[in-house]
Design a protein that fits this description.
This protein is of the alpha/beta class and 131 residues long. The protein has helices at residues 4-15, 65-71, 84-92, 106-115, 122-129; strands at residues 17-25, 28-29, 38-45, 48-55, 76-79, 96-99. The radius of gyration is 15 Å and the shape is globular.
């Protein structure tokens, strides 16, 4: 039988595990979600990078990417711009989006994420959603 304290400990640890995907072109964040060569995926546990991998989706169809990302158990996606139709697909899969992130290296972006300074840009979000 699982005790209440042990169960709480397991829940807290699960919540501290994150997988962040960054779409990349030429070793920097892709300007448009889906137009990338691959995804750099960082696994974060307790605020520390425990794994970094490069993933190539089997299909380039932008509408299929959220399902593939969910299958990879990715919790967060970083992007500069994204088609507004795709945002709802991520929402359905309960995947967090960071939108309007300036083009930079995956390591700089993940450093900002770990430091709590990675924030979506409201102006880019408005630009995307008001079209």
């Amino acid at each position: 039988m699982v005790t209440g304290i042990f169960a709480l400990s397991v829940i807290i640890k699960i919540n501290l595990m994150r997988k962040i995907a960054i779409p990349v072109v030429n070793n920097t964040l892709s300007e448009y979600f889906g137009n990338c060569q691959n995804y750099v995926v960082f696994e974060i546990v307790d605020g520390h990078i425990v794994n970094k991998s490069v993933e190539v989706p089997p299909n380039k169809d932008i509408e299929l990417l959220p399902a593939w990302i969910a299958l990879q158990k990715i919790t967060d996606v970083v992007t500069y711009k994204i088609d507004k139709r795709i945002i709802s697909l991520f929402t359905q899969k309960k995947i967090n989006l960071f939108v309007g992130i300036r083009v930079n290296s995956p390591l700089k972006i993940i450093d900002d994420y770990l430091n709590g300074t990675l924030k979506s840009d409201i102006d880019i979000i408005k630009e995307i959603t008001e079209k």
